[in-house]
Write a structure and sequence with these properties.
The protein is globular, with a radius of gyration of 18 Å. Helices cover 17% and strands 31% of the residues. By secondary structure, the chain is an alpha/beta fold. The protein folds into 3 domains: 97 residues, Translation factors (Elongation Factor Tu (Ef-tu), domain 3); 109 residues, Nucleotide-binding domain of ferredoxin-NADP reductase (FNR) module (Rossmann fold, 3-Layer(aba) Sandwich); 55 residues, no CATH class. Helix 4 runs parallel beside helix 5.
Length: 284
Amino acid sequence: MIRATPVQVRGEVLARRRVGAYHLIEIAAGGIAERSRPGQFVALSVGGPLSSMLLRRSFALYRATPVGAYSGTVQIVVGVHGRGTEWLAAVRPGDSLDVVGPLGTPFRLPSAPTPCLLVGGGYGSAPLFSLADALRARECRAEFLLGAGTHERIFGELEAKRTAGAVTVTTDDGSYGRRGTVADALPDEIERTGAQAVYACGPMPMLRAVGAVAASYGLPCQVAVEESMACGIGVCMTCVLPVVGEDGVTRMSRSCVEGPVFDHERVRWDDVGTVPADTLGAAL
């Protein structure tokens, strides 16, 4: 798959609004929007020019609109977890952001019309909506299964309903929708939709569980992992995880370059966070 070369732009914040527990930010980012594909991400500098926060923060692309009054815009969804995301969640229209993108490997699309099930956890569901658009353009039916710990942490339910006509929602605490996790609901949804492929975005434990269910049905499952990405361009090696290549050899693959999209079956989930002894280049 040929990927467009990422670019660095100074983007203007066009809008920021609260969506449940999250912040939706739209940025004028011509050059990035035109190159973007579903599943890719952008890396933003945070804290301002005098900040001591040197590392960028990476966010999956929710929407990328290549044309318009601002010659291309991108939208990201931000959940506040620390100083960097807290700063970003407070930006205002007219502020300037340093943005690099598009980064990473996008989702692969079916070559023929295929019923697909899109599974998202929390604001990890953000890239699934541009994916749904791309699938529909290939005459693939796309349905959604969205989950989170609580109701306010569900992202995109209304858009999923507009896109697919119906959406199944789960919450861990049962405060909304079906009680339990998306993995708990997945068997029923596979049976109901007749899905032949599964795409998933969200926390790592969720991806592991969803992929295991898909595998039990013999279905391919692509996952966009949420490993911490300090640089976003493959230099720092903080986001590596063990992945089995097509040649059967395990390599420590960079989520920001070789990923974030991987075939679930190729990730060695039991060994995430370690360097397995049989990994290529591992110390003997």
